[in-house]
Amino acid sequence: MDDPSALASQASVLSEVNLSGVLSALTVLVVAFVVIRVTTSTLAGLGTRFIDKRLLLHQIATVTRFVLWSLGAVLAVRALALPREVLIGLTGGAAVTIGFALKDLVASILAGLTIIIDRPFQVGDRVAFGEYYGEISAIGLRSVRLVTLDDNVITIPNNKFLTESVSSGNVGALDMLIQLDFLIGVDQDFATAKRLVEQCMLSNRYVYTKKPWAVLISQLMAGNYPAIRIRSKAYVLDVQFEKAYETDVTERVLAAFREHGILPPAILHRSLDGATFTLPSRSPGIGPTIDKAPPSTAPPRN
């Protein structure tokens, strides 16, 4: 059975709430929503027009959204015109109940403010979070929206970023470092291969040569056989051109390798300029090696 004093307290609170105050509060929230939509749409349009300021305008839109929603919430409460005693009562008992029920939402909102202040990433950044990789399209009060390269929109609660690692590829900049690996056989002309990769990389229309670039060579085990890895490292002008850059450079490098007879790593033997290279079976504890077969004039092996 309900406590009569509690019912009387609730009735007194409701009596202080008038219809005009409620309508005024709703009007304030609707106006805030419309202003936020118009402002963010305008800034997004300006970002499309002025490419070099795109990320800056996205950041301004994110901060503006937070400020306007906070201001709208304060004005809506004031529009209710509740007495101070009623506000204290509401923020007392009701706050505990609502806060417990909405603790995850409150945690996400506070995490959103932390993201805005700490800035581990920004709108427009290419980030990797868990199994997802893509571009941050929005940082909201409750969640972050990430658009993958497959054009899927992933919604991630803000509080997840407080406990899990996130990697940003460009950290607020338009350009981003792109790394591409090409594998060739250990019996191939790696000097020519390196020169071809360098030419294809630097002649690409999306490469940003004002930042450092490099072409590195290393030897590794690809599966169970040795290979030479040629790694290109260069910045792309805009993160939006990431896949276009990768596709163009890869196509041109593979075509150049084919034209110059540079072959990928081989598991079986193959002939090159009259010499036969073989990869023997792997012994326990010993990596595969490359043995050059003896000349044909040598006596046959037993």
Number of helices: 7
The domain tally reads 3
Share in helix: 40-55%
Mean pLDDT across all amino acids: 78
Largest sheet: 5 strands, antiparallel
Q: Note poorly predicted spans.
A: 274-302
Order of helices and strands: HHHHHEEEEEEHEEEHEEE
| Relative strand content | 15-25%
Q: How would you classify the helix and strand content by structural class?
A: alpha+beta
Shape: elongated
Question: What is the number of strand segments?
Answer: 12
Sheet with most strands: strand arrangement = 4-3-2-1-5
Mind telling me the C-alpha Rg?
A: 31 Å
Terminal-residue CA separation? 102 Å
Folded structure, characterized:
The N and C termini lie far apart (102 Å). Residues 274-302 have low confidence and may be disordered. The chain has 302 residues and is of the alpha+beta class. It is built from seven helices and twelve strands. A hairpin with a 3-residue loop joins strand 2 (132-139) and strand 3 (143-148). It has helices at 4-16, 19-49, 54-79, 84-101, 103-118, 190-202, 242-259, and strands spanning 126-129, 132-139, 143-148, 153-157, 167-168, 176-184, 207-208, 214-222, 225-236, 270-272, 275-278, 291-292. Strands 4-3-2-1-5 form a five-stranded antiparallel sheet, with helices on one face. Helix 2 (19-49) packs antiparallel against helix 3 (54-79) and helix 6 (190-202) runs antiparallel to helix 7.
